[in-house]
Amino acid sequence: MNFHTRRWVKPEDLNPNGTLFGGKLLSWIDEEAVIYAMIQLDNKRVVTKYMSEINFVSSAKQGDIIELGILATRFGRTSITLKCVVRNKMTRMTILEIDKITFVNLGADGKPAPHGKTKIEFVKDRLEGKIEGELPN
């Protein structure tokens, strides 16, 4: 699993208990996961369809640095399913786990559309041929 994003827990991110507000964390996860899905499916028209049980394992407090890990676990015909783990960057203690977040690929008409993807791809691999052809050796 790759941990793509780090967040610093600031005072405005806290709940009345002085720990990271779960709603704030879920917002960060949804944003990070949809960006990951857009990149994997090579399409900006992607919507959240489903999020499985959310397991809050531990909490984060002001000043903590957390990191969000995302991994594609399944490619459907029009969807992609991801797993998410959030952990404390310094202690590596798990804060949250979500087994399934499913996104649907949409066509220009706003309806589910096949994406043709079957495995995890990295942008650098997609661009490699294009960049090599443009640069002098």
Give structural notes.
- A hairpin with a 5-residue loop joins β5 and β6.
- Strands 1, 2, 3, 4, 5 and 6 form a six-stranded antiparallel beta sheet that branches.
- The protein has one domain (2-134): Hotdog Thioesterase (Thiol Ester Dehydrase, Chain A, Roll).
- The protein has helices at 22-41, 123-134, and strands at 2-8, 46-51, 54-56, 65-75, 79-88, 94-105.
- It has two helices and six strands; from the N terminus they run βαβββββα.
- It has 137 residues and is an alpha+beta fold.
Number of helices, where a helix is a run of at least 4 consecutive DSSP H or I residues:
2
CATH topology: Thiol Ester Dehydrase, Chain A
Fourth CATH level, the homologous superfamily: Hotdog Thioesterase
Calculate Rg over CA atoms.
17 Å
Strand content: 35-45%
Structural class: alpha+beta
Shape: elongated
Number of domains: 1
Report the major sheet.
6 strands, antiparallel
Q: Spans with pLDDT under 50 lasting ≥5 residues?
A: none
Please tally the β strands and state the result.
6
Distance between the termini: 34 Å
Q: So, CATH architecture?
A: Roll
Average pLDDT confidence is: 92
Helical content band: 10-25%
Pick out its properties.
137 residues, alpha+beta, Thiol Ester Dehydrase, Chain A, 6 strands, 36% strand
